[in-house]
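Exercise 3.2. Students should predict the tertiary structure of the chain below and write it as C-alpha cells, then compare their answer with the key that follows.

Predict this chain's 3D structure.
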Amino acid sequence: GVNWLSFLARFGLHGVLADDMGLGKTIQTICCLASSASAARAQESEGGPATLGPRPSLVVCPPTLVGHWAAELEAALGMKRGTPGALLTPLELAGAARERAALMRSVTSATVVVTSYDSMRADAEALSALEWDYVVLDEGHAIRNHKSKMAIAAKAVGQRARHRLLLSGTPIQNRAHEMWSLFDFLMP
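Answer key:
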C-alpha cells in the first residue's frame, strides 16, 4: 500500500486505496502524508526552488472518524498537538458554522486538516479556494452519486490539490457505474 501511494505521488497520479477493512488504509495514508510533508520541509530548508511548497493536506471523512484521524495522525509520529517542529499537525475543522469559520483562519498553519463530508460540503467555497497537497476522501464511496452536492463539493475542493486519494474498502456499493463519480473526482 505505501509503495503504491509513493508510486502515485512520484508520478503525479491520483488513486484509490481499496484495501479491505482493517488492513491499514489510514496508517498507509498517514505515511504518505508524512513523506510529502518531510520532502516539502527538506526542500524549504535547503533554500531551493519551492516546487513542493508547504501546503496543508485535507482529509475528509465521516463525522465519527474526524477525532480518530486526528488521534492517529498524532500517534503515528508519537507527537502531541502543538509539539514544536511536529511533522504533521492536525486541525479538526468541525463544529457549527461559526466555529468552523474561526478555525478556517488556522488552516494554513496546520499540515493536515481533518473535516467531515457535511462540513466540506458546507465550506466548499472556502476550501476550494485553498491549494492542497493531498485531498483524501476516507470512505470515498460517499461521493458515489455524481449529481449529489457532496460529490460536486468534493470535486471542487480537489481541483487545486497536487494529489487526490480515495480510500474505501467497498468502492462499489450497488452498481458498477457508481465508480464513474469516484474517478471523476480523481481524474476530472
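Discussion points: The two ends are 24 Å apart (CA to CA). Residues 144 and 178 are 5 Å apart (CA to CA).
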